[in-house]
Amino acid sequence: MAWDVTDRKLAEEALRESEQRFREIADNVDEVFWIHSANPFRLLYINPAYERIWNRTRQSIYDDPTSFMEGILEEDRPAMIDFFQSYLAGQEGQLEYRLQRPDESIAWLSVRTFIIRNGTGNPVRYIGIVNDITSQKEKELVLHQSLLREQELNQLKSQFVSTASHEFRTP
């Protein structure tokens, strides 16, 4: 008895190629991304960018899925806890927060989460992406400081014009 397994072999090869392309992309992007299963809620994958941003091994987050919270600044932790609870409840969202790295530097991060649902609307996968937005936040700070300085100079100019005008009217 002989069976033609050509279609199955072609499908397996296509699957291997697809997985290889996924790994090539996942291993080389700067953003951290992960995938959780919905039921049971379990971390299925996190890419190597996690190690670069958190300076922790990926195995540490597989062992303890909340270990990423350890570096988050105290002031930002309550917002992250609320965000994480919403994520667990199947709500998509976005949050900016700060992370203190082992070298004491502060990184600004932006996290976005997405929920993949089946045909009946039930969650199947939870996906998240984290971007390092530190340079963007530094530029925003410089712009804000420039704006404050400009407003201060405008106020000084207005005071000078007002004083000069008053002196000309009532010498």
Structure notes:
- The protein has 171 residues and is an alpha+beta fold.
- It has two domains: 6-132, PAS domain (Beta-Lactamase, 2-Layer Sandwich); 135-171.
- Helices cover 49% and strands 24% of the residues.
- The protein is built from five helices and five strands; from the N terminus they run H-E-E-H-H-H-E-E-E-H.
- It has helices spanning 6-28, 49-54, 58-63, 77-88, 134-169; strands spanning 32-37, 42-46, 93-100, 106-117, 123-132.
- The protein has a five-stranded antiparallel β-sheet with strand order 2-1-5-4-3, with helices on both faces.
- A hairpin with a 5-residue loop joins strand 3 and strand 4.
- The chain is elongated and about 115 Å long.
Topology, pairings included?
Layout: H1 6-28, E1 32-37, E2 42-46, H2 49-54, H3 58-63, H4 77-88, E3 93-100, E4 106-117, E5 123-132, H5 134-169
Antiparallel strand pairs: 1-2, 1-5, 3-4, 4-5
Number of helices: 5
CATH architecture of the largest domain: 2-Layer Sandwich
Strand order of the largest sheet: 2-1-5-4-3
Largest sheet: 5 strands, antiparallel
How many domains would you count in the coordinates?
A: 2
Tell me the radius of gyration.
26 Å
- Give the low-confidence spans: none
Percent strand equals 15-25%
**Helix/strand structural class:** alpha+beta
- Measured between the Cα atoms of the first and last residue, the distance is 116 Å
Number of strands: 5
CATH topology of the largest domain: Beta-Lactamase
- What is the succession of H and E elements? HEEHHHEEEH
Catalytic activity: ATP + protein L-histidine = ADP + protein N-phospho-L-histidine
Keywords: Kinase, Phosphoprotein, Transferase
Protein name: histidine kinase
GO molecular function: phosphorelay sensor kinase activity
